[in-house]
Amino acid sequence: GNSVTQMEGPVTLSEEAFLTINCTYTATGYPSLFWYVQYPGEGLQLLLKATKADDKGSNKGFEATYRKETTSFHLEKGSVQVSDSAVYFCALAGTASKLTFGTGTRLQVTL
Amino acid sequence: DSGVTQTPKHLITATGQRVTLRCSPRSGDLSVYWYQQSLDQGLQFLIQYYNGEERAKGNILERFSAQQFPDLHSELNLSSLELGDSALYFCASSTPNYGYTFGSGTRLTVV
User: Fold this and answer.
1) What are residue A14's phi and psi, to 5 degrees?
2) Longest Cα–Cα distance in chain B
3) The dihedral formed by the CA atoms of A77, A79, A84 and A87, expressed in degrees to the nearest 10
4) Which helix (H) or strand (E) holds A101?
5) Which of A17, A46, A59, A98 has the most CB atoms at less than 10 Å from its CB?
6) SS3 string of A26-89?
7) What is the pLDDT of residues B37-92, one digit of tens each?
8) Closest chain A residue to B102, measured at CA
9) Residues B83, B81: Cα–Cα separation, whole Å
10) Which residues pair with A87 in a beta bridge?
11) Per-residue confidence band for A96, with pLDDT thresholds at 50, 70 and 90
12) How far does A43 lie from chain B, in Å, by closest CA?
């Protein structure tokens, strides 16, 4: 079946540092890939998505590129802010359309 | 406001009891998904409905059931509650072009 593996957290960075959160997946066919963000006490918000190989999703300074050859969808941001502190979930949607999530990575950004 | 409405936001109940969680999907979305988020299990897919019919089933216990009504709202029924059922329950809706939208969740506490 489908699965998503993402790096364990927590990840602690200073403001303006570079962020990478690794995500790899296992799926049959050609899934769509997503990053969701969950701020404290809130629901899941779509951060970005990519629907086919080599697509780059981007939003609010975050980027991720769909790499089929390495089955990866790593999340990056060049300069994080304190307001980026949240839990980030990598997810995929296969032919069955339901989302399969990774375990989530908590990001803590300090001044 | 994501457009997906979940009620109630918080629920505290005793073991052995039965509760109903409600979800109204984004206007026009035919698919509704239920997810459980707990500390030890992460985000687990429970069940999907499409236009009133069950479409996919995930890790949903036999004590849990769901349905989608003609007006497309959905209810998740949890019975014979146990302490381990304490979790955040999310509903999401989707359309093929727009993607998935999550509600803010119902936090269930079983005491």
Assistant:
1) -85, 155
2) 41
3) 40
4) strand A99-101
5) A98
6) ECCCCCEEEEEEECCCCCEEEEEEECCCCCEEEECCEEEECECCCCECCEEECCCCHHHCEEEE
7) 988 778 899 999 999 999 999 989 999 999 999 999 999 999 999 999 999 999 99
8) A44
9) 7
10) A38, A106
11) low
12) 4
Residue A49 CA to residue A99 CA, distance in Å, equals: 12
CB contacts of A93 in chain B (<8 Å) are 100
**Residues on A contacting B at a C-beta cutoff of 8 Å:** 34, 36, 42-46, 49, 89, 93, 96-104
Q: Which residues pair with B51 in a beta bridge?
A: none
Residues of B whose CB is below 8 A from A102: 42
Instruction: Name the one residue in this structure whose structure tokens are 């997503």.
Output: A34
Residues of A whose CB is below 8 A from B103: 43
Q: What is the CA radius of gyration of chain A?
A: 13
Phi, psi of B83, deg, nearest 5: -55, -35
Do A101 and B42 count as a contact with CB atoms less than 8 A apart?
Answer: yes
**B99 touching chain A per CB within 8 A:** yes
- Single out the residue of A45, A5, A34, A22 nearest to residue A97, CA to CA: A34
Q: Confirm if B75 and B92 have CB atoms less than 8 A apart.
A: no
